Structures are given as structure tokens and as C-alpha cells.
Amino acid sequence: xxxxxxxLGKSGVSDWLLQRVxxxxxxxxxxFIVGFLLLNPELTFTQWSGLFETxxxxxxxxxxxxxxxxxxxxxxxxxxxxxxxxxxxRFLFQAVVVIGLFVYVxxxxxxxxxx
Amino acid sequence: xxxxxxxxxxxxxxxxYMQNIDLEIPxxxxxxxxxxxxxxxxxxxxxxxxxSCREGVCGSDGVNMNGANGLACITPLSSIVKKDKLVLRPLxxxxxIRDLIVDMQPFYQQxxxxxxxxxxxxxAPSIERLQTIEEREKLDGLYECILxxxxxxxxxxxxxxxxxxxGPSGLIQAYRFLIDxxxxxxxxxxxxxxxxxxxxxxxxxxxxxTVCPKGLNPTRAIGHIRDMLLKRAx
Lengths: 115, 234
Known about the structure:
The structure holds 2 protein chains of 2 kinds. Chain A is mostly helical. Chain A has helices at about 10-40, 45-50, 55-85, 85-115. Chain A has one domain (about 10-115): 3 helical TM bundles of succinate and fumarate reductases.
């Protein structure tokens, strides 16, 4: 058993499962957005902002945003533990990633649900 | 044939180097790489490598031949030599002791971690613990591992985290005991593997399957362990 405290989940299996579930959500959201853009080639700002006025689209977008944060945390944490060997540098990288993702998620919430 | 051989003697060399040697291969014969090593050693007695059974059973002579890990004793030249050139290096990712000999300690430490022995807390029977034919068949494709380290030393995840990732060899052995009907420590074994490194550092690139000289499939065994961990956690 290897002890680890900076990964997202409590265990290896939770990180593994989170990464796969979030990948499916992100894939579905990508298909949705790309599909919407293809179906509306003459897209106007009114149509675009109208899309994000809908509650289910906001929920779907927020779910995808949180999924992106979780997916990136697990993925970049793994990359850092593979390639960054000095502990201090690795911790710094992980801290920057986690804080950066937190900022993006909060910023995204503000954009989606703000006035 | 031109041989490019990795040489390193810590007592005389400040760093490793590749030595080019021209070797006459007898006509009409398809020698094994181990035979080539013996011919080289006749030319230069200082060339150092491990070997024992010379028939793919002991797992001593795992080396990197033209970029692929394998056992020198059961690898015919015809299967790996291209353009009459053979590059011989020690197994990658393990500290080199001398020439083709590596320090297997990091590999054995991971093997030790998975408790490679039966654990059974029920009273011992008078003769033996019996298995059905079906229970015994589950061990096929797992118990044959000879610990040559060809797989683990071909795995980038093991190169990056040799102290944390159990590696394909250790994990195929771990599954061999997880699936054994006579073993009662399944829960403890799974608990010891449920961290982000021991099992989950496997990315499924299957280098281990490609190089295993016994034709085993550690990636499949790792998949089974992951399934067991998932079932236990959900």
C-alpha cells in the first residue's frame, strides 16, 4: 500500500473510476456543443446566450466543468508523479494545478449562473 | 555479424559505453543469443552476463536484444537480427552492476510486497488442501511466471516509479494468489493494492505481453485485479 495525500480520490480505484466517468461526461458535452454549432451555422449571440439561459444546459455545463476539473486533477497529478522527481517541485506543480482548476471552476460558475 | 555490446565495469569505467565486436557466425546455424554471448566471452573473458539453465526455465539471462527484452537462451538470431547487426543491452530501468548484469533488488522488492505465498487461516488438513479441476485451471497462465523481469523492465510505469508500482510481474503473481481457492487473504491483498500506484499506474500499453518469454498476459491479470477492486469499492 503506497500512501498518497495529494491525489483527488481516497484510493486508486476512486481516481480511476472518476477519470473514466468524467471522460464520458466530457465526451457527451463535446458532442452536444459541436452538434449545436453544426446545426446552427449562422449562429447569433441571441441564440448562443439563449442556449445557456436554459436550466438543463446550465446544469450540463456545470457538470462538465466540474468533470473537467476532476479529470485534469487526476490526469495531471499522475503526470507529475511520473515525471517530476524532486518533491518540492512536484508539490508546487500539484498546488498550481489544483488552485488553477479551482479558479476555473468558480469562474465558470460565475459565468454560467451570474447575472 | 556486427555486435554492439553494452559494457560497464564500475571498477575501471567512469561510465558505460557500447563496444563494437565483429563475430563470425558459423554457416547454416541459427544460434541462440546466449550462444553468441558465449562466443563473445571466448574472445573476451571479461564480458559478464547471467545464465543458468540455458532453456528458458530459470529466467537468469533476461537481456535487451535489438531493443526488445527477452531470454537470450531461447531467442534465435533469426527472430531479432536485422541487417546483420545485434545490439545487446542490459534490461532497462534497473541499476547495472556490470555489463549485462542488473541489480534485481527493486524488482524483487515489489514481488515481496504482494506476499507471494498462500495465506490460509483455517486449520491445516491432515494431507493437503484440495482444489477442484476448475479451481486449479484458474491458475493456468499465471503460475508459470519465472521472474525473469523482462516484462517489468519493459514497462515505462515501472521505470518511472519502481518503488511504488508493483509492475506486471508482481501483479500477475498477485492475481495468481487472489484467484487461488485455497487463499483466504483476498480482502487484505486487495486492500494493499488499492492506492493510486500499486495497480493503477498500469496504462495498459501491453509491453509486458509483447516481451513475456513464457507467453503470459500480465495486462489481462491486472484488468482482473482492477475488476476485483471495483466490485469491492462500489
